[in-house]
Specification:
Blueprint (H helix, E strand, L loop, with lengths): L8 E2 L5 E2 L3 E3 L15 H11 L5 E3 L3 E2 L19 H15 L5 E6 L19 E2 L11 H10 L4 E2 L2 H21 L3 E6 L4 H6 L14 H4 L1 H11 L7 E7 L6 H15 L5 E5 L7 H4 L18 H10 L4 E5 L5 H9 L5 E4 L1 H5 L3 H6 L20 H6 L2 H20 L11
Parallel strand pairs: 3-4, 3-13, 4-6, 5-6, 6-9, 7-8, 9-10, 10-11, 11-12, 12-13
Antiparallel strand pairs: 1-2
Helix pairs in contact: 1-2, 1-15, 2-4, 4-7
Amino acid sequence: MSARLDSPIKTPSGVVFPNRLIKAAMAEGMADDSNNPGDKHIAAYDSWGSGGWGGLLTGNVDVSTVHMGSPKNIVVKPSISQETRDAWKRWALAAQQNGTPTLVQLVHPGRQSMVGGGSRKFTEKTIAPSPIALNIGNGLLERLLRHLLFGSPREMTLQEIQEVIQQFADAAKLAYESGFAGIQIHGAHGYLLSQFLSPKSNVRTDAYGGTPAKRARIVTEVIRAVRAVVPSSFCVGIKLNSADVGGSESLEDNLEQIGLIVREEIDFIEISGGSYEKLRMAVGDNPDPRAARTAAREAFFLDYSRAVRARYPSTLLMVTGGFRTRKGMLSALETNACDLIGLGRPAAVWPKLPKEVLLNAELKDEEAKCELNMVRGNWFVRMLGVKMINLGVDTLYYVDQIHRLGMGKRTEAPPKA
């Protein structure tokens, strides 16, 4: 086995990941009644922290109590109590007691905030860069679901943009003071910062829209605000979508935005993809799930990662989505397509995957796998024909595995369909 998968890597801030395998962020939905990390988080992160991972990324932590992604998410409140601080310190200790650097993923859902997710009233609109509603499908049921779950957003004011920037900074400061190694800013999967970056959801004509650089402005200002309240030794990463490329121009716009982000002392960029409109984080770019898997093209977003690498060769890149074999991971590293391997669903099923399988020298490359079957809904769910619901069944399976991990129960890979 190549030592490359085992080799440590140091971020510009000085945080060292002891190997290249990172537990990626996943929806957890198991905060306590005060939306703090509770006993389930302690148990789950104790297990991951002793699993031989190079680093851990937490599930998404909301920065706004009004606009939350889920009512059971951890959230950073405007006024941070001692109870919250104690809970966060306990969480950080559980995750890092074996020397595994852990980063808190921070997110604002924007127009992807479901009804009941936060303190937003039923009649109160979500916020977004522009008043453009989610499009989860054109069928009658899909349009009804969109109306009931999300409604139509309203355009954010300049004051609200500044408030969101400060919310990210306040959350990062709490993570630092709690003892975490860093934070990751969520700028992907259709959440608020991703909404600003995309011309499809951002049609503003002020300082925060109209050009690729202006659409990226809120992201660069978030990074600056975070850097202003944490020391230089604190790791700050960001998660971005691969480009929804319709032509070379959209890729070029996307790479221009990455260049602006790279200048802001970012430690690494994680490349993923998808949103509630296009659930590519679950199925990748290949529309045919039966397509043959090869080591050279195992991950979903490697082609885009290579384009970023060519333009910004010194930037640390992490790719998440689709990695299932040691061979595929090694190929991605050895061809310099990325520096870090993100694993989500496999980590929910096998919390000690690196130690027991991928970094286990007693297992041959052909044996070192973490392949998973797609979880599909019953006949009624399939009959509805709503892609968001069908793929949501698969996601919820892994949320349940994380909950089992948090309760000290055995986790299981999904059965064959």
